[in-house]
């Protein structure tokens, strides 16, 4: 896989990012874009979209199905607590497979 990415803070509370991946064995391009809105440095709301651009006819994806078109849309929220911890949640639809829920708890032992 070859990858290229960039992120930019537009304001103290808004960050945008983009990644471009090329998967050599499958000959697939994937573009991911996303944004994060920080609320008072204690919470973050996130939204992103990842799209596959298939260049190989053997790996065609059915892009006409609504569930497949929305499968790259993800959203999440995060909270910081006690200056060392964070709790993050994300929901990512997986097309015909339904949705996945991701949760993480992070604790920083050092500053």
Walk me through the structure:
The chain is mostly beta strands and 111 residues long. Helix content is 4%, strand content 64%. The protein has one helix and seven strands, in the order E-E-E-E-H-E-E-E. The protein has a seven-stranded antiparallel sheet, with no helix packed on it. Strand 1 (2-11) and strand 2 form a beta hairpin. The protein starts with a strand and ends with a strand.
Proportion of beta-strand residues: over 45%
The backbone outline, from C-alpha atoms, is: globular
Distance between the termini: 34 Å
Structural class: mainly beta
Question: What composes the largest sheet?
Answer: 7 strands, antiparallel
User: Uncertain spans, ≥5 residues at pLDDT below 50?
Assistant: none
Please summarize what this structure is.
This protein has 111 residues and is mainly β. 4% of the residues lie in helices and 64% in strands. It contains 1 helix and 7 strands.
């Amino acid at each position: 896989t070859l990858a290229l990415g960039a992120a930019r803070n537009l304001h103290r509370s808004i960050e945008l990012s983009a990644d471009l991946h090329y998967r050599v064995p499958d000959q697939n391009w994937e573009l991911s874009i996303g944004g994060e809105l920080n609320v008072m440095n204690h919470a973050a709301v996130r939204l992103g979209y990842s799209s596959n651009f298939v260049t190989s006819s053997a790996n065609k994806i059915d892009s006409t199905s609504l569930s497949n078109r929305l499968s790259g849309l993800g959203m999440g929220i995060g909270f910081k607590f006690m200056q060392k911890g964070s709790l993050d949640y994300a929901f990512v639809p997986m097309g015909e497979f339904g949705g996945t829920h991701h949760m993480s708890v992070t604790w920083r032992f050092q500053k």
